[in-house]
Amino acid sequence: MKAAYSFGMTTSSEISDRILESVLAKRLLPGARLSEQQLATLFGCSRTIVREALTRLSVRQLVVSSVGSGWYIAAPTQEEASETFEARRVIETGLLRSRERLDSAGLKRLRQHLQQQRRALKSGDAGLRSFLLGDFHVCLAQCLGNAVLANTLKDLTARTTLIAIEHQSDADAAHSCEEHAQIVEALEAGNLVRAEKLMAAHLGTWHVKLPMQADAEAAGIPQTPDPLMTLQEVLQPLDVHGASSVSGALRNPPPKTAAKGRSARPPRST
Predict the structure, then answer these.
(1) What are the phi and psi torsion angles at 72 (to 5°)?
(2) What value does the mean pLDDT take over residues 233-262?
(3) Going by DSSP bridges, is the β-strand pair 70-73/33-34 parallel, antiparallel, or unpaired?
(4) Which helix or strand (DSSP H or E) is residue 65 part of?
(5) How far, in Å, CA of 157 to CA of 139, rounded?
(6) Residue 270 has pLDDT above 60, yes or no
């Protein structure tokens, strides 16, 4: 079995990064069950290492556990959604306010990132598109010189990705990419005040851009005869055409669908 499935990843950080990236690409949806044994088989490691990875993600509020039923991808409530977007707004506008100018190397990375977003839009790959649109914010924080806040934004971006019950429409994704381009244009002009205002507006309309999940079960995906094979598909690396060199947030990214243990789904708080 291990020979058929194993990714050969042996550290908890590698596993947690792969799961995080699958969330960002909307391959793992809210409420998706994460079996320790299936993950251990898939990654070719012990359940102890898998448990460490899931615990790491639990501390970051991306995974929840339920006694007797296992681990699940978190399903944020509307109140949590509001708080998460507010946290992102404070961090990202604050980063822009604290700088006088972005250097040429940072601007080059952002322009490259925009090119990748546009290629993803043209390709019709909704998962890659979702990943890159979120990763832009992580990339910007890195370009602004704050690796700690960049890592924080990676988690917050994943949590905001979980807020949407549906994939972004093509039009919504294109609009977000255009807003990113306007922010980069302001940075190129050295107008960080305008860039900050554009970022505040970009993050301030989340309730319009991201439809909330009215029913926890609505995000469920039908189980398949082979859940391990489904999990393997979900956690495959994304083909990002060199995006890892742009932001560093990508190392071993993700594709499609996750099985969910619906009967064991822990209740959501309101």
Answers:
(1) -140, 150
(2) 48
(3) antiparallel
(4) strand 63-66
(5) 12
(6) no
Q: Which CATH number goes with the domain that contains 240?
A: 1.10.10.10
Identify the residue whose tokens are 């707004």. Answer: 89
Burial class for 231, CB neighbours closer than 10 Å (0-12, 13-18, 19+):
buried
Number of domains in the chain: 2
Q: Whose structure tokens read 């994304």? A: 238
Assign 147 a pLDDT band (cuts: 50, 70, 90).
very high
Residue with tokens 């908890």: 12
46 three-state secondary structure: coil
Q: Is the pLDDT of residue 25 over 60?
A: yes
How far apart CA 263 and CA 48 sit, in angstroms, is: 25
The CATH number given to whatever domain includes residue 160 is 1.20.120.530
| Same domain flag for 71 and 90 | no
- DSSP element (H, E) containing 2: helix 2-5
Q: Which two tokens stand for residue 108?
A: 């080059």
Give percent of the chain above pLDDT 90. Answer: 49
What three-state secondary structure class fits 212? strand
Is 35 a domain residue?
yes
In this structure, the answer to whether residues 61 and 82 fall within a common structural domain is no
Kindly give the interhelix angle for 192-204 and 78-97, rounded to the nearest 10 degrees.
Answer: 180
pLDDT score recorded for residue 257: 37
Q: Does the residue 256 lie in any domain?
A: yes
pLDDT confidence bin for 217, thresholds 50/70/90: very low
CB 154 within 8 A of CB 178: no
Q: Name residues whose C-beta falls within 8 Å of residue 48's C-beta, 6 or more positions apart in sequence.
A: none
According to the model, what pLDDT value does residue 193 have? Answer: 94
Q: Are residues 121 and 185 in the same domain?
A: yes
pLDDT at 206 (0 to 100):
67
- Domain encompassing residue 148: 78-209
